[in-house]
Amino acid sequence: ITAFIDGSNIYGSDDSRAEGLRTLNKGFLRTHTRGPTLPSNKQAGSIDQIGSKAFVAGDIRATEQPGLASIHSLFVLEHNRLATQIAIEDPSLLDEELYQRARRLVIGQIQNIVYSEFLPIVLGPTKMEEYGLNLPASGTTTYEKSVNPGIFNEFATFAFRFGHSLIPDFFEPAKKPTKTTPNICPLKDTFFKVEECVLGKDLSGKAWQNLILGISTSQSPPMDAKIEESITNFLFCKKCDFIDGFGQDLAARNIQRGRAHGLPGYTQYRHVVFLSTCA
Fold it and tell me: Which of 57, 81, 128, 232 is the most exposed place for a label (fewest CB within 10 A)?
């Protein structure tokens, strides 16, 4: 996916993936034959080198765990909702126009979530103001073409991975599920196995909706040095139990990734941002 906040995780970053995810009719994105969720790889023209029945999206990691698959499903449906509304307001628009207009609005929604909700929590109001990251109260922002939009290796490889401490051990659906069987989804058991948490045991394709409602009312783990056991002992495991079914360790992977990318030590970065190196 790209360095821009451009919805490429939903729409793809190349022409073949983008086209495979579209119906090419009414501006819609494809949804699953079983219900309103991500399409299968077969439906999308086998855009990924995975099984034909696996879910696919703009980002190949969309089905890494149920929470991700649910959020991806949400934005697919939001795109189709907007395309429908735009068509009602202007019936003369063709598929490409409907698709691009709905896509533009969804990208705007994501950008607003990032700058109005996510970054203020992560950075705080002082840094938001200091770096000019607050969105204007009215009007539009100005694109500054002289700024390099690329992502620093240090950010991608190390800094942004603070989010790994926010990952819970399990995803709990809404207390009052609607139209499908409720299903608690332990993270350690659902890496790339999201069928029951997305389609549901009743194969309605709606289980992810209850999961989204549950996630939205759940307390996030704190941002600290602790990482839940689901991803320190059971990451991508095939037989997940506490006796002999251990998997990989995400914290260890992060450390090794930093070494592989040649990142210097923590004290060096304190020096870069004019902080004492005696931390």
Answer: 81
Q: Name the residue type at position 3.
A: A
Dihedral of alpha carbons 128, 130, 135, 137, sign: positive
C-beta of residue 173 within 8 angstroms of C-beta of residue 212:
no
Query: Average pLDDT in the 135-164 region?
Result: 89
Count, residues in the chain: 279
Q: How many CB atoms lie within 10 A of CB 34?
A: 16
Task: Please report the sign of the dihedral spanned by the C-alpha atoms of residue 11, residue 17, residue 21, residue 27.
Answer: positive
189/196 Cα distance (integer angstroms): 11
Angle at 214 between CA 121 and CA 242, to 5 degrees: 95
| The CA-based dihedral angle spanning residues 153, 158, 164, 166, taken in that order and rounded to the nearest 10 degrees | -100
- Above 80 in pLDDT, residue 1? no
Distance CA 28, CA 23 (A): 6
> Please, which residues have CB within 8 angstroms of residue 230's CB and are 6 or more apart in sequence?
167, 168, 169, 170, 186, 187, 188
Mean predicted lDDT score pLDDT of the chain: 89
Q: Which two tokens stand for residue 56?
A: 């696919």
Residues 226 and 167 sit within 8 Å (Cβ to Cβ)? no
Report the SS3 class of residue 248: strand
